[in-house]
Amino acid sequence: MMNGLTGATGRAVKPLAALFVLVAALITGPAAAQNLSVDINQGVSRPLPIAIPDFTTQQNVETPAGTTSSLGKRVAEVITNDLKSSGLFRPIDTLAFTTNVAYPDVLSPQFASWRTVAAQALVTGFAEAQSDGSVTIGCYLYDVFSEEVLVREGFNTPVRNWRRAAHKCADAVYSRLTGEAGYFDSRIVYISETGRATNRIKRLAIMDQDGANHRFLTNGQNLVLTPRFAPNQQTVAYLSYAQNRPRIYMYDVNTGQQRLVGNFPNMSFAPRFSPDGRTLAFSQSRGGNTDVYVMDVNGGNVRRLTNAPGIDTAPSFSPDGRRIAFESDRGGSQQIYVMNADGSGQRRISFGDGRYGTPVWSPRGDLIAMTKIGGGKFRIGVMRPDGSGERLLTDSWQDEGPTWSPNGRVIMFFRSRRGGGADLHSIDLTGINERRIPTPLEGSDPAWSPLLQ
Amino acid sequence: MTETRALTMAGIAHLALFATLSLSWSLMADHTITYDEPVPVEFIELGEMPTVTERPEPTLAAAPRETVDAAPAPDTDMLEETPPTEAPDLLVPTETPPPPAKAAPKPEPKKKKPQELTQAVDRNKAEADRALEEQDFASMITDALPPQITLSSIQQSTLVGLIRERIYKCWDPAAGGPDSAAIVTTLRVKAARNGDIIGRPVVVRQSGSANAGYKRAARDAAIRAVMNPSCSLSGLPEKLYAGGWEDFTLNFDPKDL
Question: Are A207 and A289 members of one domain?
Answer without folding.
Answer: yes
